[in-house]
Amino acid sequence: MSLDKKNSINNILEESRIFPPSKKFAENSNIRSQKEFLSLKKQALNNPTKFWESFAKSEIDWFEPFQTVLDSDNAPFFKWFKEGKINITYNCLDRHIKKGLGAKTALIWEGEPGDSKKYTYEELLKEVCKAANALKSIGVKKGDLVCIYMPMIPEAMFAMLACARIGAPHSVVFGGFSSEALKDRLIDGNARFVITADGGFRKDKVIELKQAVDAAIESGADKVVEKVVVVQRTKKNISMVDDRDLWWHELLKDQKDQCEPEVMNSEDRLFILYTSGSTGKPKGVVHTIGGYNLWSHLTFKWIFDLKDDDIYWCTADVGWITGHSYIVYGPLSNGATTLMYEGVPRPSNLGAFWEIVQKYKVSIFYTAPTAIRAFMKSGREIPDKYNLESLRLLGTVGEPINPEAWIWYKDVIGKNKCPIVDTWWQTETGGVMISPLPGVVATKPGSATFPLPGIEVEIVDKNGDKVEENDGGYLIIKKPWPGMMRTIHGNSERYLESYWEYISFKGEKNVYFAGDGARIDEDGYIWIMGRVDDVISVSGHRLGTMEIESALVSHKSVAESAVVGKKDDLKGEVIVAFVSLEKDVNGSSELVEDLKKHVVHEIGIIAKPEKIIISDSLPKTRSGKIMRRILRSLAAGEEISGDISTLEDSSVLEKLKELS
Ligand code: WT7
């Protein structure tokens, strides 16, 4: 995307109103005065070490204390709280029970077909311990990577926490990824164990997870995977492989419901989570225990203004970082009641979300702009049928929210009494970085407002120079923070290149580049403008154009491909692919369908191109580089502007215009 334009997405609706929190909300919020907020910021600025030290001590329990808050010796491979001994499940479960909260509901789960369950903190701990003992019984040891490929059922949470209990890092792979994508992730992480289900219910369909695991293993992951544990969910017939596959319920049946938490080092791995980048295959983002525990805990507490009786619901999937930090670890570490829903809204059931809010009296609701836009499109009559009085705070995440959707959310869902927290962050940041604190910050629709205390951001140009007010530039983070990623699994070079060496700085070192463009307005509000690299966001799902191109090129008929994002009212962006075919292959609508299917097979349904344009040639520079800028304009149906003098053959443009 270009940075010289002002943020177009934020200008869809001229909306200059500012929304301070209501008096009632502000008076009751945990951080309630500007003074308190500014004082936190000041403390963090003046003495970051002391700032993080005091929160790490007051918010997190350690088996043995840390001595070093931040070790920068090998920067940007930072280490946090390095001597500390910890287990995140102790902080998420045991400590609340010790304080007498054992009977509090930890998890409310609503199944897609209408079944539901609740677990208290005590019950959750028992489930986690049984699962932990079961994992041990099949040979999972501290340090072994366990892949979790599951639907949104309680066992997904049990599995994650069971891994953390015994010190085995998890790698959760979103259930919407294909067997090919799963295979790549299994092999890259060297995952010896997989926990999956016989299927999952999604949008009136059953997703066949176990079949995908079988296919991934058959097509190459057999060199790493030893055991597969299968949760029974759909009761559909699946085949079980002797000596490799085990039923979860049989394995857990006779396990003890007690399991001491493994004493872990602060910097031991908690999980790997794969995310898309601009080049190459998805990268395994590594998070470690101590820093991540503190950051997911503290951000949850600050941003969602937690109260004892809150019912909190984040609609994400545990296969994404949002699910990790704000369905599982953040809420549980704070002793909150967290709701998990197996389904996603679909045309046949657009009231499902609001029915759940009404049924459980949800008070804090966190979702994605793409969902809000879908609700908006289907009309306010649907949410208006439900009692949404219990809601007191609303959040959004994943992509910029257009002011129109923001206002609708505030009005129709929040009845104009709930503040909205627009939270900017990434898989790599572990937790939220930029967001209003709901009791303090006056919000502007479409702006994520200000960085949290302890987070220092700036908007710069490619040379690292600060840009002028309201000018677009690259969003950078100037100081390390506890929840930051530690590296890319197996590829520390890529960690350095992607995040720390992209922008050339004069003098300043160890500055983190997020991959996003942004501007800061005259009041200091931050407006995120979207990715500046070749990463696109479809319904808030992050995909690298290169991943999709590789998938297309792996098809026997495709010679070359270039993928771009096109703005979409509902999904934010959709995928448009330009492909040229191998000699002697003719384009046809069947081939286009086949190519779409092929991409779904290689990556998953989220990567399905909206449009595929077949052309003899693609616009290239004389040095052979595809000029994506031109393709983006073509896909958007815009005039091609800017310099095209480097184009090797300008007649390509005319042909492409006809085809697009
Ligand atoms: C990218 C990170 C963080 C959890 C969900 C996505 C975009 C995220 C916002 C927001 C504008 C946002 C950015 C970021 N993004 N939140 N509030 N406003 N853009 O995690 O898959 O790692 O994607 O999502 O472009 O870089 P992710």
Explain the overall architecture.
- It contains 20 helices and 30 strands.
- It is globular.
- The longest helix has 17 residues, at 121-137.
- The chain has an eight-stranded mixed beta sheet with strand order 12-11-8-6-7-14-15-23, sandwiched between helices. Strands 5-4-17-16-18-19-20 form a seven-stranded mixed beta sheet, with helices on both faces.
- Helix 6 (154-166) links the parallel strand 6 (146-149) and strand 7 (170-172).
- Residues 4-13 have low confidence and may be disordered.
- Helix 4 (88-101) runs antiparallel to helix 5.
- The protein starts with 22 loop residues before the first helix and ends with a helix.
- It is α/β, with parallel strands linked by helices and 660 residues long.
- The protein binds 5'-O-[(S)-butoxy(hydroxy)phosphoryl]adenosine.
- The site of 5'-O-[(S)-butoxy(hydroxy)phosphoryl]adenosine has 22 residues, from helix 11, strand 20, strand 24 and strand 25.
